[in-house]
Please model this.
Amino acid sequence: MPVLKLLNFGGMIPATDPNLLPDNQAQLAENAWVYSGAVEGFRESVAVHTLANPMARKVYRIPTEYYDKDHIPDSYWLEFENTDVDVLASPVVGDQFKRFYWAFSQTGGGGIPQYNTKERIAAGQPAFTLGVPRPTVAPSVTRANGAYWFDALGSTIKVTGGNAGHLYYGKGYGQDAGSFLSGTSSRPTDPSQYGATKALSSLRGNLDKSGDGALSSTPKNRYTVAGQPAEMRYGTVQAGKRITISDSGDVTLGNPAATDPLASSDPYVGEGIQEARAYVYTWVSAYGEEGPPSPATLYRGWSEDPWVIGLTAPTAGETLNRNLSKVRIYRTISGVGGSTTYFFVAEQDIYNESYTDTATSDLVSANNLLQSLFYDPPPEDLEGMVALPNGIVAGWRENEIWFSEPFLPHAWPSPYTLATEYPVIGMGVIGQSLIVCTTGSPYAVSGVNPATMTMSRLAVNEPCLSRASIVSTPQGVVYASPNGLALAVPGAVNIVTRNLITKDLWLDPDDFLSVPTLRAALLNGNYYTWGSVRPGAFQTDAFQVDAFAQEDFTGAYHGAYIDVSNPRISWVNLRSETPIYNCFSDQWTGEVFTIKNDKVYWLDLGRNRARESFVWRSKIFEAQNKRSFEAMRIWFSTFPDSPDLNPVQVVSPATLADDMYGIVRIYADGILRFSRELRSTGEFMRLPSGFKAQFWEVEIEARVKLTSVELATSAKELANA
Model:
C-alpha cells in the first residue's frame, strides 16, 4: 500500500460496507461540516429566547419590527406546550390587525383552533377561538306599529261589559273611523293610551258608529261588521298585541298563537304590493370576520310597510373567547334570480335585538349579496393547517381534508371537505399542490379554488411515520416513511435515501434515528432532523411523579443532516449532549430553531459562529498484505475562538478536553493502537511499531479545521509524499 493520503473529506453512506466506501468517505461523520472538502464542526447553536413557560415545546417567532435574521432576538414569542402546533401569518388582504392563526395536534395536548393579533400578543392578551358561530335562532318578522284584526266574521259582534275588557270608540281621536282603547273599564285621561296619538290608526270595515260621538265611559256593546273582518292598527303603546273578539263576545288582549305567515285570510291591506320575504342575520367580529347566517324566517307582508325584525343576541357560550361585535341583517327580494339570494340590509350592534326595515327593494338590490352562507368555524378538533397559494388554508382531522375560503382563514365551508382512505398525519405544499401524508398511501390535491379541488391517491404505499418530519422543499414534500426519506410530488413518490441507508439502519434508534419522533427543518437547503422527547407512558396522577421518568428521551440525543443531492456529503450524524424537544424552521428567515434546556436555540451558519467538536472516522483501508504504518502527518488550521492549549501535552488521551485542539486515533485490525493530541499542524508523528495489520482506520476528534491526513510505512516515504 503506498502512502495513505486523505483529502476532500466526505460524509457517511451507511448503506455501504465500511470496507467498500470511497477513500474520502467516512464510516462515521458526527457533527461534521464537510462542504469545503475540509472537516470542521457544525456551528454551535445560540440561545435567542428563554422560555417563559419551561414546559413549552413549540414556539413561533413574531418580529417586532425588522424581519431579517440579525434581529431574531428582537421578537415576540408565542409559546405552546403542545409540541405539534402549526402557526400561520394572516393571508387576509390588507390585514391591519396583523393576525396569526394556529391549530393544535389532538394527540399532543389538543386544543381548538385559535388566532390573535400582533398587538394583543405583544400585550400578553389571550387568543380568540377561530371562527364565528352560526346563530341558531331564526329572526322574528312582524308588521311595524302592529296590525290587528277581529277574528270573528259574524254580522254582529257584541262586547260584554265589566272589567274583563272593553273596546272604546273615540271619534275625537279618529280619522274616518276613530281609534280603539282596550283593557280598562273607566274613562282614560291620557290620550296616548288610545293606541296612537299623532299617528292615529284606522278601523277598516263597515262599523256602526251610532250613538254619542264623544268619548264616554259607557262601553259600546254593538259593532256591526258587514262582509269582512274588522281590523285595527295600533301605535307603539300596544305594538305587538292582538285583540280578538270571539263569537261569544269575549275579548282577548295579548300575543296570538303563531299563524301561517303566508295565509291568504289575513285581511290587512297595507302600502305597496304584497310580497314574501325571507330574513336571516349573521354575527360579525370586531375584525370584520362574518359568520354563517341564522335559519331563515319567511313572511308575507306589504312592500312599503315597515317590517320589524327581531334578533337574538349570542349567548355567553357563543361569545366565550370570541370578539363578536356586530350583527348583519339580510333579506331576499321578490323576482330576483331563480334561487334564494340574500341582500344586505343593515348592520348594527350585536346586542340590539330589533331592527325596522323600511328600505325599498330597489335600494336593497344594489347592496352586497350574502357571501357567508357556509362560513362555519373550522372543526374544533382540527389537527393542523398549512398555507396554500391564493390565500387558501388547508387543514385536517381524522381522514378529512378541510379548506378555508380564500383569504378568509376564519371561514371553513364543510362542502369543500375531501376524505382520504387513511387517517391524515400531516401535509406539505409544492407549487399549487397539497401533499397529504397519511398512515397509508399519500395523496395529492390540486386546484386554485377550494370549491373545485381535485384529489388523487399516489400509487406507492409509503406511510408517514412522523408529522413533524414533513418538510416542503422546491423539489417536493419530504417525509419519514418506513423505508427512508420519501419525496412526494403529484403523481409520484420516491425513497430518496434508498442508496444511502438500508431500512434496518434507518429504523435503528440507537445508532441512527428514532424515526417516529423525528422533527425536521431545511438547513442549507437540505434535510436537518432530530429525534425528540416524547411524553412518558405513565399517568402522572397514578404514581409518585418523581419515581418514574415522565418523558421518553429515546432518540432525543440523535439527529442527522442529509444531502441527497451531493454524493460526497450524503449523511452526517448529529449528536447532542442534552435532549432535543423540537426542531423547526423560522417562518420569517428560514433559519433553524431547536428547543432544549428551556431555551430556543438558533443554528446560525454564519462564518464567525463558534464550532462544535466533530468526529470523523475513515473507511476501513485494506492492505494486500499485512504491514505496519510508522509515520503520520495531519494538516489543520484553527479558528479565532479555538482554545488555548494546555502547556503540557497529554499522552495517549482518551477524551477531548476543553483545552485541546483535537485527538487522532489509529485502529489496526479493529484495535486502538495509537492516540495522540493534536498541537501543531503538519507535525511529524511516529506510530508504534512491533506489529502488522491488514485493516487500518483513522479517526479524528477535533474542534479545528482538518484539511488532510497522511500515513506512510516510513519517515522517508512520508517526507517524499
Notes: Confidence is low (pLDDT under 50) at residues 145-267. The first helix runs from residue 118 to 122.
